[in-house]
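agent> Task received from the user: take the single chain below, predict its 3D structure, and emit structure tokens. No templates, no multimer pairing.
agent> Plan: (1) validate residues, (2) run structure prediction, (3) serialize to tokens, (4) report one or two observations.
agent> Step 1 OK, no nonstandard residues flagged.
tool_call: predict_structure(input=
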Amino acid sequence: MSIDVPFIKSWVPYLGHGIAFGTDADKLLLGLQQQHGDEFTILMGGKKITFLTNPHDYDTLFKQAKTLRGDALSEEVSGKAFGIQWHLFDTRLHEMTVQFDKSLRRSKLGPLTSSMHLQLEKRLQQSSSDEWQQGELFHFLAKLVFEAGGEALLGESIFDDDSLFSEFQHFDKQLPMILSGLPRWLFFRRSDQFLKKMSQKLCQPKPNQSGVMDERFAFMDSVSSDREAQGPINAGLFWAAQANTVVMAFYSVFFILRDDEARRRITQEVHESLSKVSEKTSLGTPELSLKTIDSMPLLDAALDEMLRLRTASMPIRMATENVELSLKSGKILSMKKGEYAAIFPRLTQMNSEIYEQPEHFIWDRFVGKQGPNHFNFRGEPLKYNLLPFGGGLSLCPGRHFSRNEFKVLCIVLFNAFDLELLETDLPDFDKSRLGLGALTPTSEIPFRYRRRQAVLQADK
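)
tool_result: status=success, residues=460
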């Protein structure tokens, strides 16, 4: 049976519910779901978007990969955000993403992860001692991962600029407003200067860049001879590789430190796993192979719980032709060419029917329950209960490397450092980030840290 999806009108022309979404998407979409049911349509930024809020229907959206696509919208957004001129390339965003996804397959991440680990260790050894030092946890961890992961991926010299991290943070904070379409020349001059700088830095290969970037430049050279045009695309990659990762690096450490049992059990797991490692890095620290990183199920489970709490992806698809979607309810949703459908997995991730006490960090919630069909909704197992990196064709190609970065950071810190939170209140997050991925904290957490004496003696 075909259904008529209710269109929820707004008093704001063109923007529609866009302002309410940017203010608090959780509140808006949950309220509309409770009032109008699992399917409803709203206007945002001149586009009518139908939301499917029953998680059993996510697979229906993803399976229609030929007729429901996100390419056009992604190219529009990336062009608006980074100034990418897609007409200068003999390819589309999807083909470029497929190539990048192949370069970042889990089985190929050993060298890149090892490089990130070494960069991380170098920076920690330079900035730490056996005496207590105090800092702000988000800034400390975000900058650490920003530089270590960035240099491992992109190569040398980029991170010699001390202003780069603060300029990146400024751009990232302004991104939701940039995407709103406000005049760049009037409101975003500083952000545009940052983009210009990064485009110039990244239009040519860098010394000691990763094999991932070697493959990326080779591919881009095959679809465009204009290196200046490649710069903005790599600036977009730079943002995509860093923005969500640095935020989730903070939450990875913060949530575990905040839970005494999680900290004790995961630290014990790290110690036990590293005690079996005989290989050393050039700095004398345990070598973290992919096998070693993957041998810590308690850490993995805690990271899944962190991702559940503090991510909010929003896969959007446009119908490239008229299409009918068979919903779990047995009803048929008819979409015309050019219409949009979206899902908002955070509604699932914070649903009390699926997760007991969804607002709380229950560190072992996912122990033995990673993957599909471990959680139920309306009496049936869920294939997609957790989608922190998007889904279907929009699945983030850097998801495996990002997760490795979280894990390497936790392993190194919990193995070699004493860490103490000086404030344990959970910081609120920037609600304008809902739908963009990681939810940036709006306040800092003071902490102190020092290298453990036993580790210092071993290093000597």
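agent> Step 4: summary for the user.
The domain at 7-459 is CATH 1.10.630.10 (Cytochrome p450).
agent> Done.
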